[in-house]
């Protein structure tokens, strides 16, 4: 007889990015998720080594290949934790959320042109901006921006964010 999995055991994230992001957001935002762990995830920084809280979370909830892009996943997890409660809204484009919150074109330009750890840092700044405005968005779009490795895919991620930003932009400047 196979041992049964206790009901409190976390489900493994599914294979698609959208389902992985949904799982991560639901887990971090869950009422029973320890507030100390959520706070530790909020404090993750691209220029610091991962905390034990990140490793505990990563090995339980991130896709199996997360280690290949550890810093990008740290930024995703930290950003989702920063935007709690209700960090992920699949029906609300990231560019729309940035535009409606008054994010400036100059900041968007820097964000979309950035690479590597600079991208992670600037994305977390954008997330803090959204969190301060109690805004939420589709985290899959931010994840694609961070995780896309080919130039064509990275450009498609940039374009998706820029498209929704400019469709909804109200001439905010720095």
Automatic annotation (TrEMBL):
InterPro entries named in the record: CRISPR-assoc_prot_Cse2
Matches recorded under NCBIfam families: casB_cse2
The name this protein goes by in its record: Type I-E CRISPR-associated protein Cse2/CasB
Origin species: Methylogaea oryzae
């Amino acid at each position: 007889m196979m041992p049964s999995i206790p009901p409190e055991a976390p489900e493994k994230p599914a294979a698609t990015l959208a389902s992985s992001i949904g799982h991560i957001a639901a887990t971090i935002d869950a009422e029973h998720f320890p507030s100390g762990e959520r706070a530790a995830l909020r404090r993750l920084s691209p220029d610091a080594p991962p905390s034990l809280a990140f490793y505990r979370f990563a090995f339980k909830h991130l896709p199996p290949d997360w280690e290949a892009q550890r810093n990008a996943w740290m930024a995703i997890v930290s950003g989702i934790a920063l935007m709690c409660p209700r960090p992920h809204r699949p029906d609300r484009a990231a560019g729309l959320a940035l535009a409606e919150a008054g994010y400036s074109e100059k900041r968007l330009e820097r964000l979309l042109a950035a690479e590597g750890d600079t991208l992670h840092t600037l994305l977390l700044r954008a997330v803090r901006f959204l969190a301060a405005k109690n805004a939420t968005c589709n985290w899959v779009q931010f994840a694609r921006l961070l995780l896309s490795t080919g130039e064509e895919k990275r450009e498609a991620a940039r374009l998706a964010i820029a498209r929704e930003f400019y469709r909804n932009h109200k001439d905010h400047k720095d």
